[in-house]
Amino acid sequence: MKNIGILLSGRGSNFEAIANNVGSGRIRDARIAVVISNTKDAAGIEIARRLGLKAVVIPSKGKEREEHDREVVSALQEHQVDLVCLAGYMRLLSPWFVQQFPRRILNIHPSLLPAFPGLGAQEQAFAYGVKVAGCTVHFVDEELDHGPIIVQQAIEVLDDDDEHTLADRILQREHIAYTEAINIVLQGKYKIVGRRLVTKITVR
Asked: Quick one: DSSP state of residue 69?
C-alpha cells in the first residue's frame, strides 16, 4: 500500500477526484495519507476533513520559501508519503524540496506542455486561437512546468467555446489524466529516456 500526499491551495477539484478514485479502486493499492494546504481557508481542506482524511494547514504567508518547504516536507515524511501530488498548489517548490522526493512529485497543468506554461494556461490557449487544447501530468523538477511528461489528454477547441467552457472541459480531462499518471508511477512500469517516459511492456 502506497501513501499519497496531496498539496493544495484552493478548491481541490483534482484532489477530490483522486480521493474518489482511491476509494473506488481506480487508483490501486494506495491511500491518501495526508492533505496539506498553505492557506487555512482552502475549500480542499474542508473536503479532506469531510472525507475523514488527515488534513493539515501549514501557512506560507510571511515565510521564506525554503522555510515553509521544510515544514511541508517534515509533515510529508511524518506520514511516510511515497508520492506527492500537487492539486492546485499555488507555490513554486524550492530545489531543496524537489530533491527530497526525486521523481516522486507530480503536477497537473491545464495545457499541452510545453505550450502555455504558468498561470492562466486555458485563457492563454483560447486567446492564441489554438484548435486543440488539453492537460499534462508531469514530474516536478526545479523548473516551472518542465519535468518529464507522464500523461497528456487533448480536446478539440469548439467554435462556440469561450475560455470558461474550455477550462471546464479541460478540468474533466484532468481528473482522468491524473488518475492514469498516478497508476503509472505507483506501479513503476516505466522508464525515462532523455525527457521521454516510456511505459514498460512485459512480454510473457
From this structure: H
